[in-house]
Design brief:
This protein is an alpha/beta fold and 191 residues long. It contains 7 helices and 10 strands. It starts with a helix and ends in a 6-residue tail after the last strand. The structure holds iron/sulfur cluster.
Length: 191
């Protein structure tokens, strides 16, 4: 069933101007990313737990790639999504906006790696609800942020200086002028 859902999302993303393909599992996703990185020198990443879970930083470093954090100018930028609607809209929320900025302009190539757990069968409200429920609380805990969601697991739409959800981007279509691909992985990755 999840394979059909991943394929449906790929078809929606293709209609929205992204390159897109399904990876049947983590190993296939890693192989696709490594092929993308074969001819590049520098690779950036958006602090993604998905990238971490796939061990991509280490694998890319072993291949002699220069790994950069939080920079706009790089050959290849890897990131995930906090949520993606089944009809193909990618939603990301940042504290600083650096990840979102790099996904819009700067890198030579942008590659999203999105696990099936990020797919919502609904609209933007459902996507944001997913992010507030499943992405922000564990990220706040991981980053040591003193926010209500870190303490309770529930978003309080806080005014905390530690708030991590300050900038939101909805990719209704692939932005003009960038080269971008989405790998939809038929596995749960990140949060
Ligand atoms: S607004 Fe505050 S409480 Fe809500 S998810 Fe963001 S950081 Fe957590």
């Amino acid at each position: 069933m999840s394979k059909e859902i991943c394929q449906k999302l790929v078809e929606a993303l293709l209609k929205r101007g992204f390159e897109a393909e399904v990876a049947a599992n983590e190993a296939e996703a890693v192989a696709i990313v490594m092929a993308e990185a074969a001819d590049v020198k520098s690779v950036g990443w958006g602090g993604s737990e998905t990238v971490k879970a796939l061990g991509l930083r280490e694998k890319l470093a072993e291949c002699g790639k220069e790994i950069r954090d939080h920079e706009l100018q790089m050959d290849l930028f890897l990131l995930s999504a906090n949520a993606v609607t089944l009809d193909g809209r990618i939603v990301n929320i940042d504290g600083r906006g650096n990840r979102i900025a790099a996904s819009i302009a700067g890198p030579g190539r942008v590659v999203y790696i999105i696990g099936r757990n990020k797919i919502v069968d609904g609209g933007l409200d459902d996507a944001i609800a997913r992010i507030k429920k499943y992405a922000c609380p564990p990220n706040c805990v991981r980053l040591g942020k003193k926010t209500p969601c870190a303490a309770t697991g529930i978003c309080a739409d806080c005014d905390s200086p530690d708030r991590i959800c300050k900038v939101m981007a909805v990719f209704d279509r692939k932005p003009t002028g960038i080269s971008a691909k989405v790998i939809v992985v038929d596995a749960d990755l990140g949060y």
